Amino acid sequence: MDFSLDETQSDLRKLAREILAAETDAWPALREAGLTEICAPEPAGSGLGAVELAVVLREVGARAAPLPMLPHLAGTLALAGYGRTVDGLVTVATRGTDGRASSVPYAAQADHLVVATGQEVLLVGEWTSVPEFTSTGEPAATVAYASGERLGDDAERVRDLVLVAAAAQASGVLAGALELTTEHIRTRRQFGRALAEFQAVTMQIADVYVASRALDVALWAAAWGGDPRDAALAAFHVSEAFRALYTCQHLHGGLGLDVTYPLHRYFAQAKQLTHLTGGADAQLDRMGALT
Questions:
Q1: What are φ and ψ of residue 259, in 5° steps?
Q2: What SS3 class is residue 144?
């Protein structure tokens, strides 16, 4: 399969990259540029799909930007599957049952909640939330809701959208961490030599590169194809990306533990995305069940 981006997708990537590079608080600029509504149906949005979602979220990850783009784009794309569009910030709940859901990103800030637990998909307008701790410091919560509008019984489709979104952002996170680490070992000297000249270091950074490429291939296969097995595989590689972040941290030495150094943001976001996907074992179990 050819995963090359077309002109529209390439333009989206360029625009997202420019905004994220220029803005400290990028959400208003992304919204003004229309990037927050690329998955909403026309005329409210651009009516684009999972590939375009992945293109934008990969750029968010590459900057390790703390933004609600992942739940919002996944939520609006889920709603688009039912021909629905809403105003305001959307978030998604994929874990829970009987009127409760946990680990809901930006729950207290959102205007609409898409719930995909069990088999049903609900659009919820009112809920209460109890804050949760996240590794990135971004807001999340356990929510409780009394009722919601039933949209369908294809909750697995919505959960797969969230997995693809998480894999896309993780792909960018690992790419950003790899670039940062590559530059560090190129310029950092030890015993009169650059770290990159040591064979053990080159082998370790090569492992990070392999993990990055494996995640990329799994991500684009899932985004283009829409197969639940591909979504599970992409989510599995999110956990592998988190393991690769440990290698990046190790190659930075003590600097890698400094919470003010940029690598910490990548590490924290990779950890949070791994939590969002449920971890490697959960995806291996799902792949087995789908085979």
A1: -70, -10
A2: strand
Residue 165 burial (C-beta neighbours within 10 Å; 0-12, 13-18, 19+): buried
pLDDT greater than 90 at residue 117: no
Element of type H or E holding 151? strand 149-152
Is residue 110 pLDDT above 70, yes or no? yes
The radius of gyration computed from the CA coordinates of the chain, to the nearest angstrom, equals 19
Instruction: State both tokens at 24.
Output: 């400290």
Angstrom CA distances, 209 to 14, 94, 203, 206, 249, stand at 23, 31, 10, 5, 14
Q: What percentage of residues in the chain have a pLDDT greater than 70?
A: 99
Q: Indicate yes or no: pTM above 0.90.
A: yes
15 falls within a domain: no
Taking the C-alpha atoms of residue 158 and residue 169, their distance in angstroms, rounded to an integer, is 17
Q: Which amino acid is at 250?
A: H
- Which 8-state DSSP code applies to residue 291? -
Residue 19: strand, helix, or coil: helix
Total domains present in the chain? 1
- Looking up residue 232, the CATH number of its domain turns out to be 1.20.140.10
